[in-house]
Amino acid sequence: MPDAAVLLTEAAAQAELALDARLPPESADPARLHRAMRYAVFAGGKRLRPALVLLACRACGGRDAAAAAGLAAVEMLHTYTLVHDDLPAMDDDDLRRGRPTCHKAFDEATAILAGDALQTAAFGAAAELGAEAVAVLALASGSLGVVGGQQDDLDAEGKPVDAALLERIHRRKTAALIRASCELGAIAGAATPEQRKALAAYGEALGLAFQIADDVLDVTATAAALGKTPGKDAAQGKLTYVAVHGLDAARAEGARQARLAQDALVLFGAHGADLSELARFVVERRS
Amino acid sequence: MPDAAVLLTEAAAQAELALDARLPPESADPARLHRAMRYAVFAGGKRLRPALVLLACRACGGRDAAAAAGLAAVEMLHTYTLVHDDLPAMDDDDLRRGRPTCHKAFDEATAILAGDALQTAAFGAAAELGAEAVAVLALASGSLGVVGGQQDDLDAEGKPVDAALLERIHRRKTAALIRASCELGAIAGAATPEQRKALAAYGEALGLAFQIADDVLDVTATAAALGKTPGKDAAQGKLTYVAVHGLDAARAEGARQARLAQDALVLFGAHGADLSELARFVVERRS
């Protein structure tokens, strides 16, 4: 019986190694930039996306080593979006994972550049998996994916609630990269077309479940558990699932999406157990 | 006898088509983001980097169509760096190519995101040329390339002149992407290893010549010719070739690097004439 905490710890350890191997040392010029990149990357996150790359690769019968570049690629991509989202011109956050955000610990110019260089490094790592992995990551993270979702998210602040726009934001800002993480794992694991399709469906539903759970935690969790200020989304007038549909409906929809994710794994049989456990964890987590 | 103006016009026309085909329409959601991306990209620049991709591909005997994705990739990459460099936290520029900079025409958050998405789109386009093209572009444009050069450039402002640091900034901030453009053209044109090496050497020298000429123009050109405020580098205490070595030495070194670039083309014989003409143009241009 797999345990999510064990799986995440194992994947995080592999992710740290994969990231460290692909980031220049802090001593490399320009040292300030490389310190900022490593400060942002090595901040003790959950490493959910690398875990998905790893477990999707394993589900297809791939070796862990084949997925290493993918673990680094999705985490560097995700980290760059956090660094830029935290900037004063965007969400203007001072705390991330219980520490000063990158632009607070360094300065705004360095944070912009560290984010830029982390995106570049993400694509450099994805290229190790081949051109198709790069194309998948680019589609998920560009103006029709993560970046587009952040633009919609900013534009929606303080506007009337809109269920259709909310879903678009969730699909792009969060689900797109979580889905791409599963697809990169599929590519690393030499998946069959059916396996790849199933993992993409799993990732899409899991991504929605994850973001809805995030919206719930913003209302219910403590600052200590979150490592950031709870209630901030509501205070900023952010469009969240809880704001649009209420807390009970959010919990129900999160659980439903997690089940949809698990249902997508049927063709993997017992090899899908780890990914299924991760879906359970995503909606039941406390931080 | 090739003429640089004709070559650049021809390459620019192909670049516009290649870019337009790879950027979502302005009407696509989020419309504000796509308008900002297109505003930044379609601003009438020289399109030097796409021209280098095209002419390097041709020099190796490749067809123009094979290079199209490379034209778009290097120009989107270059444009994203301009959008971010112009931000208030960085060089704080209001004018670019005679028009308001992206964050002036839109807003800061949109400019950050438009830059981010242009970088993503650049790697999506590079992936059309294969994983090696992505790796070349990533190495040239990350923390050890363009982004690292910009960090050094910012950190050097107002500091004592330093010839070694100046050369490092020029190699990373400018020459790296110009060299990568030539290498992408080589990849698109299925270059032999010798051809690829020669084109990389050409690009490195051309990039240095180009940046030195830029430093000279900041001192000698008019605002109307530049489309931006001349004398700004000097006013900001930027480390430039002119500031370190003086105007006469800058002109001499620019001409020397242009000749080195031309010398690197010897194995192409007559097929190197267009690239050679571009090297002449780069140091003799007036804007």
The biggest sheet of chain A amounts to: 2 strands, antiparallel
Question: Can you write the helix and strand succession of chain A as a string?
Answer: HHHHEEHHHHHHHHHHH
Spatial shape of chain A: globular
The CATH topology of chain A corresponds to Farnesyl Diphosphate Synthase
The CATH architecture term of chain A is Orthogonal Bundle
Summarize the structure.
The structure is a homodimer of 287-residue chains. Chain A is mostly helical and 287 residues long.
Note down, in words, how this protein is organized.
Two copies of one chain form a homodimer. Helix content of chain A is 72%, strand content 1%. The mean pLDDT of chain A is 95. Chain A has 15 helices and two strands. Chain A has a two-stranded antiparallel sheet. The longest helix of chain A has 28 residues, at 193-220. The first copy, chain A, has one domain: Farnesyl Diphosphate Synthase (Orthogonal Bundle). Chain A is mainly alpha-helical and 287 residues long. At the A-B interface, helix 2, helix 4, helix 6, helix 7 and helix 8 of A face helix 2, helix 4, helix 6, helix 7 and helix 8 of B.
